[in-house]
Amino acid sequence: MITEKKGFSINGYLAFFVVLPLLQISFGIMIANKILLPMSIFCSIVVLVCWAGFFMVQPNQAKVMTLFGSYVGTEKRNGLRWTIPFFMRKTVSLRIRNFESAKIKVNDNLGNPIEIATIVVWSVTDSAEAMFEVDDYESYVTIQTESALRNMASSYCYDPQDDDSADIALRSHPQHISEILKQEIQERLGKAGLTVHESKISHLAYSPEIASAMLQRQQATAIIAARSKIVEGAVGMVEMALDRLKAQNVVELDEERKAMMVSNLLVVLCGDKNAQPIINSGSLY
């Protein structure tokens, strides 16, 4: 495995003030003394070759240098630099980048088809590995991210199976799922000298062929949960009403009248529509 190391280069401004006078001297000799003309031409060629050693490094960029196919180092210092002219130099961006994957269809842990996509924030941290360990590190990010996303999505269910369950699900635990996805992508991209800074699920939904059925299921679950709360509250209110009537001796009710009162109160409290009461103007019995 090829790992990054510091390459040879010197300050470009210092090299400029050394190479420029040599170029002027060689042209001066060429003009003033024709006897030393071959030497002057040779010196001029050497100076011009040295001129090819200048290069510029932008902020958050790196220059990967090779000599006849061998890696000789990386230069990350910004500004004008000079190195051996025979070094081939390739630019690698160290800036943070965003990648948004396409929406892919995958089966979750229960076999339900879902659509999922992610956004990955990444950057190059080892320029040598990025250049020499993979053929195209940007394409490598795309393919490996989608592969990691597919593998992660198939390991968890879309929704938790029980409201009180602590099982991790794609929809109910977004932060935890993001951390798991980040680790899985990093394990794959680390081989290419890349670092994942953040990974978030950008799209999560059931596939269109089952979306309608799953929506009805979610609505039914919500209705059942709401009804359970309503019934629980209604039973408590009926119990409180009976206890208050008995404690304050407002009226004495036998078991049959209590059952009728409970039935009427539950209808009023649990009904979807407003109750229409019937007033008894006669005797209670």
From TrEMBL:
SMART domains assigned: PHB (SM00244)
GO cellular component labels: membrane
Pfam families assigned to the protein according to its UniProt record, in alphabetical order: Band_7
Cellular compartments annotated: Membrane
Keywords: Membrane, Transmembrane, Transmembrane helix
Mode of membrane association: Single-pass membrane protein
InterPro entries in the record: Band_7, Band_7/SPFH_dom_sf
Record-annotated Band domain positions: 52-218
Stored Gene3D superfamilies: Band 7 domain
Transmembrane segments: 12-31, 37-57
CDD domains found in the cross-reference section: SPFH_like_u2
Name of this protein: Band 7 domain-containing protein
Source organism per UniProt: Paraglaciecola arctica BSs20135
Lineage: Bacteria, Pseudomonadati, Pseudomonadota, Gammaproteobacteria, Alteromonadales
